[in-house]
Structure formats: structure tokens, C-alpha cells
């Protein structure tokens, strides 16, 4: 018999809302491997409410927004199937700005996803709007 039950509880959580082909994600860190398993299920569910060929993401990492190495790798693999047009990352509420910025850049660059970092929500939203088809 195989036990597929996780050995650990998820550390970190996220809130995802969708509006006008934009996913708004507030991601509270730090994030362990189990967090990414749950996060990917939530992303798949939220993606049913946007046009899969015409959507953008507003990401707000909050707190100690640092993934485990395995979690970051899981997310890289998950994003290979995404057609997201752009990701705006607002680091205002992030306590680990330098490392979070570096890790996010590595993950998005590995998947050739257009992304930009901001310290103000309005600027991030304005930047993203230019990527959506009318």
C-alpha cells in the first residue's frame, strides 16, 4: 500500500481573485513544498475564470516570501504549461525583497514569462493592462 498523505502541513497560504482576465494573488510566505501542491490546485481552479490565452497576473508576495528549493522547482515545472502574458510582482509587503526578487526572476525567466517588479500597486496594474488583448 502506498501512502500519499503529506508528512507536513503547508506553510504559507494564498488568496486568489480573478477580474477582467487578471489573477490577483496575495501569497503569504514562507512557502514549503506542500504549499506549492495546494497553490497549484488553487491556480488551476482560478484559471477557469480567465481567458487561458489572454490573462495577466498581479502577484503580491507578503512576509517572508521564500520558497523551498523543491517548491521553486515544482513551480517552474507548473509554469511550463502557462500562457500567462505577464506577471507584475509588487514587493511592497515583502520582508525578503532581495532574495524574493531574485528567485521570482529565475523562475519566470526560466519559462520565458514577461515579468516586472514594482513597489506600488497602481504602477503594476497600469503596466499589466498593456499586455491584455482588447
Automatic annotation (TrEMBL):
The protein depicted here goes by the name STAS/SEC14 domain-containing protein
Q: Which organism is it from?
A: Thalassotalea eurytherma
Amino acid at each position: 500500500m502506498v501512502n500519499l498523505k503529506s508528512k507536513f502541513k503547508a506553510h504559507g497560504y494564498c488568496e486568489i481573485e480573478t477580474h477582467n482576465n487578471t489573477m490577483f494573488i496575495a501569497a503569504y510566505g514562507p512557502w514549503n513544498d506542500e504549499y506549492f501542491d495546494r497553490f497549484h490546485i488553487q491556480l488551476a481552479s482560478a484559471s477557469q475564470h480567465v481567458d487561458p490565452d489572454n490573462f495577466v497576473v498581479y502577484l503580491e508576495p507578503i512576509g517572508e516570501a521564500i520558497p523551498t528549493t523543491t517548491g521553486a522547482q515544482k513551480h517552474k515545472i507548473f509554469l511550463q504549461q502557462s500562457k500567462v502574458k505577464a506577471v507584475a510582482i509588487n514587493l511592497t509587503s515583502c520582508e525578503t525583497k532581495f532574495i524574493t526578487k531574485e528567485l521570482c526572476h529565475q523562475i519566470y525567466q526560466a519559462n520565458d514569462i514577461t515579468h516586472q517588479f514594482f513597489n506600488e500597486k497602481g504602477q503594476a496594474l497600469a503596466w499589466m493592462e498593456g499586455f491584455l488583448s482588447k
